[in-house]
């Protein structure tokens, strides 16, 4: 887990042409997307299309991701962050919990940028697997250069599920995806790009990474 300092990030949405600033408290984030090996150790499941221990787990829904977070928290004796209510089609986040969780999209973008201000934290071919260099497949985590804070694969390889609803009034329960994937064109692999999908959606270029609130932060 990498320590991410507190800061301020401005999010933007091309569809609505709006932007908004968010203060981000310090937190911790996994240096890599959750791998298939790690996912299998915690869940005894191997949902991915392309098998490989060091490949990012993919073919996982938003629900799968938050269940993994809770299972990992229990494994390590931490308080689970989520109360899952499948019958109601929703989950509640206990912000006081010390367990693992998905990053918010503000946390994700702040962590991705790592203090940089451009569309990416480095030259795309050096930091990301995307359509231009991925040879139509997912790649082992950590195969490209990290950002300034030591986070790998923030752009490309697989999209990351975030906690947030995308736009509840228009899209209901759809959740935010960030980062771009191995099959995406270069314009999708930018720090500011937002994508949305239903929380039950599973596909071979969507995975996730985990976060934890810093001690004393809610």
Automatic annotation (TrEMBL):
Protein known as: Formylglycine-generating enzyme family protein
Organism per entry: Streptomyces massasporeus
InterPro entries in UniProt: CTDL_fold, Sulfatase_Mod_Factor_Kinase, SUMF_dom, SUMF_sf
Top-level taxonomy: Bacteria, Bacillati, Actinomycetota, Actinomycetes, Kitasatosporales
Protein origin, superkingdom: Bacteria
Domain Sulfatase-modifying factor enzyme-like per the UniProt entry, residue ranges: 1-212
A Pfam family reported for this protein in Swiss-Prot or TrEMBL: FGE-sulfatase
């Amino acid at each position: 887990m990498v320590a991410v300092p507190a800061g301020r990030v401005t999010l933007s949405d091309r569809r609505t042409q709006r932007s908004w600033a968010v203060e981000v408290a310090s937190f911790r984030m996994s240096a890599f997307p959750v791998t298939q090996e790690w996912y299998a150790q915690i869940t005894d499941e191997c949902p991915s299309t392309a098998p490989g221990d060091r490949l990012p787990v993919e073919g996982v829904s938003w629900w799968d991701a938050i269940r993994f977070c809770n299972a990992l928290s229990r494994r390590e004796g931490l308080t689970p962050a989520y109360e899952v209510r499948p019958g109601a089609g929703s989950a509640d986040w206990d912000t006081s919990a010390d367990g693992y969780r998905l990053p918010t999209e503000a946390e994700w973008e702040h962590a991705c940028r790592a203090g940089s201000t451009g569309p990416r934290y480095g030259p795309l071919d050096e930091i990301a697997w995307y359509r231009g260099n991925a040879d139509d497949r997912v790649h082992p985590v950590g195969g490209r250069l990290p950002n300034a804070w030591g986070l790998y694969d923030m752009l490309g390889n697989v999209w990351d599920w975030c906690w947030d609803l995308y736009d509840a009034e228009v899209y209901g329960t759809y959740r935010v995806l960030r980062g771009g994937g191995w099959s995406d064109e270069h314009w999708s692999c930018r720090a500011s790009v937002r994508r949305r999908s239903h929380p039950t959606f599973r596909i071979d270029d969507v995975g996730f990474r985990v976060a934890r609130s810093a001690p004393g932060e809610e």
